């Protein structure tokens, strides 16, 4: 029996020699397309921006009818996304409100709040501290999420 003749005979009678490489290429192209679609979906915004909250040490000091909240260390942050609220407040205040606006006595918090910057809250008929006291919360708001950065129990003046 001649091996060359047998090999040639088998090759002439078999039409499936190229099937395996074609199937392999089709599978590889299919897997590549699926992976590109998944990665493209993730990159193009299916996962929301994960802006992380700042890690900050807030220091609270109560004096007479005011409470001062100072940035005592940690990350600098944009105060535009910060609100001050809680049961110790008559209404929610923006942390970037102007000095002498309802409930804010002085304010150095801005778009680059850093160590040493402070905001002083006062009792005011237009908003601010509640004379009965209560909890004050400093809240970070970003991407439809809010996180309490710190809390303080205000004793009030009544």
TrEMBL record:
Archaeal Type IV pilin N-terminal domain segment(s): 17-88
UniProt keyword Transcription regulation, yes or no: no
A family per Pfam: Pilin_N
Residue ranges with Acidic residues bias: 123-133
Matching InterPro entries: Flagellin/pilin_N_arc, Pilin_N_archaeal
Ranges annotated as biased composition (Polar residues): 104-118
Positions of region (Disordered): 93-133
Chain segments annotated as transmembrane: 20-43
UniProt KW keywords: Membrane, Transmembrane, Transmembrane helix
Domain of life of the organism encoding this protein: Archaea
Protein name in UniProt: Archaeal Type IV pilin N-terminal domain-containing protein
Organism name: Halostagnicola larsenii XH-48
């Amino acid at each position: 029996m001649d091996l060359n003749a047998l090999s040639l005979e088998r090759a002439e009678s078999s039409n499936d020699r190229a099937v395996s490489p074609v199937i392999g290429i089709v599978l590889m192209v299919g897997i590549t397309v699926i992976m590109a679609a998944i990665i493209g979906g993730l990159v193009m915004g299916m996962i929301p921006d994960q802006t992380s909250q700042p890690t900050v040490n807030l220091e609270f000091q109560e004096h007479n009818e005011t409470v001062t909240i100072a940035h005592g260390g940690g990350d600098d942050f944009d105060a535009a996304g910060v609100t001050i609220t809680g049961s110790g407040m008559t209404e929610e205040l923006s942390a970037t409100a102007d000095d002498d606006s309802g409930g804010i006595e002085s304010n150095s918090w801005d778009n680059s709040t850093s160590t040493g910057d402070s905001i002083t809250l006062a009792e005011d008929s237009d908003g601010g501290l509640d004379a009965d006291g209560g909890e004050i919360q400093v809240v970070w708001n970003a991407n439809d999420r809010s996180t309490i950065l710190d809390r303080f129990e205000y004793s009030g003046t009544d």
